[in-house]
Amino acid sequence: MATINANISVTSTIPESGFSLNKTMTMTKAGNTTGIENTNGLSVKKLSATTAVVLELAADATASGANKLYIRNTGSNKAEHVKISFNASASTDTTDEAIGRLYGGDWMLIPWEADGTTHNIVAAPSTADEVTTIEYMTFHE
Amino acid sequence: MATIATLSITSNDLLPSSPLSINATSTLMKADTSVDLHMMESGAGELTVAASNGGVVLKEATTAGINTAAKVYLSNKATDPTYYIQIKLHDIIVGRLYAGDWMFMPWSQGDVVAEISIEAEGGTCPYEYAIFKEGETMVART
Description:
The structure holds 2 protein chains of 2 kinds. Helices cover 0% and strands 47% of the residues of chain A. Chain A has strands at residues 5-12, 19-26, 38-39, 43-47, 53-56, 68-73, 81-87, 98-103, 107-111, 120-125, 132-140. The model of chain A has no long low-confidence stretch (mean pLDDT 93). By secondary structure, chain B is mainly beta. Chain B has a domain at 41-133: Sandwich (Jelly Rolls). In chain B, the strands form 3 sheets. In chain B, strands 3-10-5-8 form a 4-stranded antiparallel β-sheet, with no helix packed on it. Chain B has a 4-stranded antiparallel β-sheet with strand order 4-9-6-7, with no helix packed on it. At the A-B interface, strand 1, strand 2, strand 6, strand 7 and strand 8 of A face strand 1, strand 2, strand 3, strand 5 and strand 6 of B. Strand 1 of chain A pairs antiparallel with strand 1 (3-11) of chain B.
């Protein structure tokens, strides 16, 4: 078993009094305290078209487990984004399973249902005028 | 009104060849701009299995939120490792937050039915959340 720690820190001055949170989790398998020990590794994909692409296949992970998904748009352009969705394939990216948009510098770490029929991870850049670079990694059972 | 979100993922034994260290920092801004997100809400509660049977809405999507750059933080503060919170975007299951887990997710609200719902499984799950956003259609008084 492996020990994987993930820490989030958020500070905000939206409220005048300020806001902060700091939380660390150790990634464990569903229903017990055994550490997650599988990954497809840290990957990088450079996208130069707006065509949707599949980043990870849900079939590689255990459905309904404690899987985690990390993605970062490594760019700095806040005017462009990459849309992240769950979909059966890249060709179905127009359906309504969109999770959200990662603008330049944005990152996400979410649990991943990894249902093999619908939960492949799909990314679609908003622009073809520049290369969109995505860094991603899954941690799964 | 800057909001800065920082992530660190580390492991010394996941990869056989080398330690893993991922670091990321983002300043949260409105969609398609370099203007800071300017709205947030946060809260905490206890989610019981019975009361959340079938899922309860953590946050409704609204017209003003469509195609925005909102971010959602949610943490399951339960300690029993068999307890989890199932997260959904409308009918789509995002995943399970087991005891001690947290998530930080973009939420672009593709339409007004892209609400976030949560459901406790196994036992009562204390939770806390924060949503950083740029727009929301307010509910008219009755």
